[in-house]
Design brief:
The protein has 376 residues and is an alpha/beta fold. The protein has 2 domains: 225 residues, Alpha-Beta Barrel (TIM Barrel); 124 residues, Lyase, Ornithine Decarboxylase, Chain A, domain 1 (Beta Barrel), CATH 2.40.37.10. The strands form 3 sheets. An 8-stranded parallel beta barrel has the order 2-3-4-5-6-7-8-9. Strand 3, helix 4 and strand 4 form a beta-alpha-beta unit. The longest helix has 22 residues.
Amino acid sequence: MPRPISVVISSQALRHNIDAVLQHLESTSQEAGVPRPKAWAVIKANAYGHGVEIAVSAFEHADGLAMLDFDEAVKCRDAGWTKPILLLEGFFEPADLELVQALSLTVAIHSPHQLDMLERARITRPIDVFLKMNSGMNRLGFAPADYASAWARAEALRAEKKIATIGKMSHFARADDDVLVSLEQKKVFEQASQGLGEGPFSLCNSAGIYRPELWTSTAVAGEQWVRPGLCLYGCSPLPDRSAVSIDLQPVQTLQAELLSVRDIAPGEAIGYGHLFVASEPMRMGVVACGYGDGYPRLIGANTPITVDDVATRIVGRVSMDMLTVDLTDIPQAQPGSRVVMWGEGGPSVDVIAACANTIGYDLMCTVAPRVPRIIT
């Protein structure tokens, strides 16, 4: 029989979360008296580890999909997605432009190199682009001082019928924890965009969506798009608000079973390095899950976990294939008892990520291929 561990992906929760985000945008827009932004559902990294094909079906109410890889764009079109698809890093070499045209993809343009390729390319079907500005993230994008000249080159390409529409975009660096920094980035974006047409524009990621001051009032003319990602998979994009508090449901549940149960006497140690030493008699269980399955090895002490729907804690060091839990207050637990590392019926992935000094993105994307996927 297979090893007793699996990751359960809830299609219903994915559908709920995109609808919850759209409802938040709608109600906030109505209160502010502005049009609701359109939403690209971000499905990069295999839909954050959940599966592109599942996401295509679940996010049918989104206005578009956004990703990085051409292979994922092909999967979306093959799965029947006919709405816009945005490639967040654009194209990488001239040959990519053939697929951009064939699949009707929208591409980000963030460097002069991409404009060079487009100027030299043979284009038979004008493509839609978003010209990306570096408003303070300092990753991809044209500097604000160079943005107008990049825009002029894009306009020339539109006159040559190589480009169809030109949008504007940027990315917030600290929408999750410092809205003032984000407001400054927004100001930079608005100032550098002045006089550059009324095409579509996009600024907000998941965190920005839940900071209305970042999108309900803007000096940029045109149709606004937002880019929800993390929140669609049941994680909160804000450190001071839980996913439940903003009506998001857990999508991914990492679950396993107890392999064994034993009694531990005071003074006995558990696991590699003997990091945990019992101070009193206790009952301990071994779970069929370890860092080889994607559970973080450097997890913090006393990290929460549930066994038979009862909350308890991890004790000792996580090893490649196993971890150990405190069963002292769960007398009914036996080999075969269900254990939830994160997700439905257990701690949230946000809580576990905080214990591991990382983020929910990391945990969801790195569940190992050896863990069977169950789609519900």
